[in-house]
Design goal:
single chain; 7-stranded mixed sheet; alpha/beta; 9 strands; 2 domains
Amino acid sequence: MNRSHIMGFCITIFSLLFIGFILWNTFEIYPNNWPTPPSAEAASNDFLALYRWLNANNVSYDTIYSGNMDILHESMTKNVFIQGSRFDLSGSAVDYIINWISLGGHLFLSMDSNRENFYKPLLLELGITYTYEHNYDFIFYSENNFPLLDSTVNFLVITPDNEALEIKDPQNNTRLVQLKYGLGSITVTGNTWFLTNWNLGEQANSNLAWYIFMHENIGEPWLFIRGDDTQGRESIFGSLFSQGNFPALLLSAIVLLIAGFWAVIPLFGTLKKEGTSDKNIRERFLAEGRFLKNHKALNYYSEKYIREIKRKLTLNSSNNLQEEQIKISIDKALRQKKFSDTILGLKQILESM
């Protein structure tokens, strides 16, 4: 290694050390915590935490997005969660559900829609009435150790002979009722926010969930009849159109298309026709001949003629005398000093056959 290489190596090492010293004393390295959004699975299923909790406790479950009394008849499950707006209560459904409960069914009814008279035929038969208050002053469990129950609906048990559990908020309003009926029971409340992914982890909510799903029927399977959580969620295009800049998106798409076509098709329009004059053909053959001559491969042409002459001799079944004459003519053509004379002689032999 000569002296200049050693000097360059030393200067490089010194420069790196100097830059490292400046960076170490100028900048600060500190951890940065980035918020982690919920997974796509959690965003599309508000009951994902509940389902995983049931799995952890060896409780099987099934979910369908809508149902009627035929579903209850066909299902062997005695524990059913019903989202009211996803269940058909028309016709003889009310009588069937009451009979199903009296024979040992356990129903959890979520009155998720404020339809004044939609649930009354069923609940009145069971001894429960209700009123809608049309307010959204939620009772926050974090302050009152109270589960997050829907504060827009207030229940009243009108058959005190039946064994009933009533959960009242600090204002003495009944927000959830569990009523024994025959061999079964019904639990009714408004929207079930306390069971969603974001609230189930609170102590008051998890305690209530344990009581409803595990207290009396430990390990028994559940059937959930509830809406598809992906319904009503915006697609990626819906979010772009509502929140993004659509003209900018359209302009970008047009520019991308033009760039793509420009890369794939470099020349637009029709192809130019190349000239086919005798001069161009002659120049090409001359260029090819020069190339073969430089590589001492001009016999490529003569071999083509000789091969064709032999092929015609075979086809014509000529006599031995004619074959001898043709061989003599070929030898004479190959002995010519000029290659052009050789090709001319072979051409004349081929044309005379």
